[in-house]
TrEMBL record:
Pathway: Purine metabolism; guanine degradation; xanthine from guanine: step 1/1. Catalyzes the hydrolytic deamination of guanine, producing xanthine and ammonia. Binds 1 zinc ion per subunit. Residues 66-422 form the Amidohydrolase-related domain. The gene is guaD. It comes from Rhodoferax mekongensis. This is Guanine deaminase. Keywords: Hydrolase, Metal-binding, Zinc.
Length: 443
């Protein structure tokens, strides 16, 4: 066992109400193996009490530092690391001119491996310990990312991008022998599930890019796999951009809405994570709630691509799950601090939907415990828990240095309440705040 002494930030259990942060100025976090040999939190609380219960455990002291749960990125594209900051008039030209050409390079295993190594290192450098990630339509890109995440003991979920139409020939799923591209993509998905899902800390996500780039046959096949493999994840995009919505409605006129298209093909259920979810009506919100699907809110991406503003009031009024995501490369930063600040701006916007002033505890929760709940990784079903430091959670955490920059040091020294401290970190923070990222390792 190991113990870490520092200021501690974590979240009350979901049963005690959403988004309530707990904070211990002089705390002790005790980590040790569970029955399966995974390193999990054994105890957390005031140093004065917890240290008496674990007198033999060696203590590492981090004076002036804050230990907090590792962040969870609910939606990111590892093949888009070189696309960050590519301007376009909107989503569809951005995809065509920058994103698809960049993704083409991932047919080469060497390029995939090198990008995967960089990507995982960059997540960890920014304090992100769990990610739900797009790869490309090349199986090599999926294998490369899983292999790298496995080597770093990281909890990572990814999958082969399904796109069998409306994309350049070089990027649509390729057929082999007598199999069409559509059939091959579904077969590849199943083999990748069997090879990787549940291995160490890895999980598979069935990944139709978005409805417009899949045929009915591909979406139907994806839905069948989602039914057959009930504990794999599903990820896609929805209702991000007005032109995208018009296009999706033309292609699937029988569905009640763009979102309902996914439901019509069996792609909405728990563990289904839809990026953006901006242009929704209340029937869409109710469909999210009733199916147990969750939104990956991607504020830096939505601001960069001019897509619109996620409606927090609508989501909470109807009551469906959500969490935060960088959506790199539409998104502009790997840093959870930048994403939380952008989420504050998006929530605040009050011209296109009700404007809310989200609390810093709530923003932080959306990127940790809330995101874990959206993924079904909060331990509520007896499975693993991440995104929190309650006893039993996997011990993925960050060590933050609130003195990382002169302005942070000056501002955080003035904080007299937890919300003041957290807001200073969110507004002024970036990768410099993250002194260490610690990953739970099986022993
Ligand atoms: N919709 C379909 N593909 C993409 C993508 O790569 N990024 C974003 N932001 N939206 C998408
Ligand atoms: Zn995306």
């Amino acid at each position: 066992m190991n113990a870490y002494r520092a200021s501690l930030l974590w979240f009350a259990p979901r049963s005690e109400g959403v988004a309530r942060a707990l904070y211990e100025q002089d705390g002790l976090l005790v980590v040790g193996p569970d029955a399966q040999g995974r390193q999990v939190v054994q105890a957390i609380g005031a140093y004065s009490t917890v240290s008496r219960q674990y007198p033999q455990v060696p203590v590492q002291h981090f004076p002036g530092r804050i230990i907090a749960p590792g962040f969870i990125d609910l939606h990111i594209h590892y093949p888009q690391i070189d696309v960050i900051g590519s301007p376009a008039s909107g989503l569809l030209p951005w995809l065509e001119n920058y994103t698809f050409p960049a993704e083409n390079r991932f047919s080469a295993p060497d390029h995939s491996a090198q990008a995967a190594t960089f990507f995982i290192a960059e997540l960890l450098r920014n304090g992100v310990t769990t990610a739900l990630t797009f790869a490309t339509s090349h199986p090599e890109s999926v294998n490369a990312l899983f292999a790298q995440a496995q080597a770093r003991h990281m909890r990572l979920i990814t999958g082969l991008v399904l796109m069998d139409r409306h994309a350049p020939d070089y990027l649509v799923n390729q057929g082999q022998g007598s199999l069409s591209g559509t059939e091959q993509s579904l077969r590849d998905t199943e083999s990748l599930i069997q090879r990787w899902h549940g291995v160490d800390r890895l999980g598979y996500a069935i990944t139709p890019r978005f409805a417009p780039t899949s045929t009915d046959a591909q979406l139907r096949g994806a839905g069948e796999l989602a039914k057959q493999y009930g504990d794999v994840w599903i990820q896609s995009h929805v209702a991000e951009n007005k032109d995208e919505i018009t296009w999706a409605r033309e292609l699937f006129p029988a569905s009640r809405s763009y979102l309902a298209t996914y439901d019509d093909f069996g792609l909405m259920r728990e563990r289904a994570i839809y990026a953006h979810c901006i242009h929704f009506d209340d029937d869409d919100r109710a469909l999210m709630r009733d199916t147990g699907a969750a939104a990956a809110i991607s504020p830096t991406s939505n601001l960069f691509l001019g897509s619109g503003f996620f409606d927090y009031e609508g989501a909470d009024r109807v009551g469906y799950q959500y969490g935060l995501a960088s959506d790199v490369g539409g998104g502009t930063s790997f840093s959870p601090f930048h994403t939380m600040l952008a989420a504050y701006y998006v929530g605040r916007e009050g011209q296109t939907k009700p404007g809310l002033s989200l609390t810093p505890q709530h923003l932080w929760w959306q990127h940790t415990a809330g995101a874990a709940g959206a993924l079904g990784l909060d331990g509520s079903n007896g499975g693993p828990a991440v995104g929190n430091l309650l006893p039993g959670c996997e011990a993925d955490f960050v060590v933050l240095n609130p003195q990382a920059t002169p302005l942070l040091a000056r501002k955080t020294a003035l904080a007299s309440k937890l919300d003041e401290l957290l807001f200073s970190l969110i507004v002024l923070g970036d990768d410099r705040l993250v002194e260490q990222t610690v990953i739970s390792q099986a022993i």
